[in-house]
Amino acid sequence: NVKLLILEFGGNMMPSINGPKTAENYGKNFYDQIMYLKKQKPDMDILVIGPADMSKRINGSYQSYPDLPVVVEHLKKAAFDAGGAYWDSYWVMGGHNSMPTWVDQGLAGKDYIHFTTDGAKKISELFYEALINDYNEYRLEKRIRKLNGQPEIDTTSVAIDTTSETPTTTTTPAVVKAKGFKKVKNTKVASFKAIIHIVKSG
Predict the structure, then answer these.
(1) How far apart are CA 169 and CA 159, in angstroms?
(2) What angle do CA 46, 71, 85 make, to 5 degrees?
(3) First to last CA, the chain
(4) CA quadruple 162, 165, 170, 171: dihedral positive or negative?
(5) Virtual CA dihedral for 182, 186, 187, 188, nearest 10 degrees?
(6) Which 3 state secondary structure label does DSSP give 147?
């Protein structure tokens, strides 16, 4: 009786991505996989957690995998096109070349890929906060409309906030499709740094 399926994909695939076309094909294949799962249980909601920042040595220093932002965008598109939602852990970490900072703070390992125990705890807390914040936003919107005798929202409302350059726990980006949320429209993201909150009727 599964109602919400959370998928985390992208990280293990990064070493095999060798350009925009490979990233695009990966996104398309991921979309097909999501649709297969949805066919098994059509009323099940899907939430995708994308890859975190990860680095490799380039010209003597650790830098983000060059195609990582492209992979993020294609996974995001696959999630939205399949009627699901997406949480951008790459953005939450700080975006491009943020992994070295996490390593310096003891939140990620010296492989510049995996979180330490403290890092895993931090990123999971940020995810939980984003999920609950968006769900509470949805509940508040629903309650206000009911009190005012207004009809429930029929379409997805998208708000893009690009004012914050540095992610904080109070501005954690999330696109959440929790229990009772309806389908998500295909959403074009202005940039991978955008904070996207999708509010849906229940």
Answers:
(1) 18
(2) 20
(3) 19
(4) positive
(5) 180
(6) helix
Q: Can you tell me the distance from the alpha carbon of 6 to that of 84, in angstroms, rounded to the nearest whole number?
A: 10
The model's pTM is 0.73
Tell me, what amino acid is at 120?
Answer: A
The tally of CA atoms less than 13 A away on the side-chain side of residue 14 is 23
Q: Distance between CA 130 and CA 113 in Å, rounded?
A: 23
Which residues fall within 8 angstroms of residue 55, CB to CB, at 6 or more apart?
Answer: 62, 63, 64, 65, 97, 99, 100, 112, 113
Tens of pLDDT along the chain (202 residues)? 889 999 999 999 999 999 999 999 999 999 999 999 999 999 999 999 999 999 999 999 999 999 999 999 999 999 999 999 999 999 999 999 999 999 999 999 999 999 999 999 999 999 999 999 988 988 898 899 889 888 876 534 333 333 334 433 333 333 433 333 333 333 333 333 333 443 333 3
Neighbouring C-alpha atoms within 13 Å toward the C-beta of 178: 15
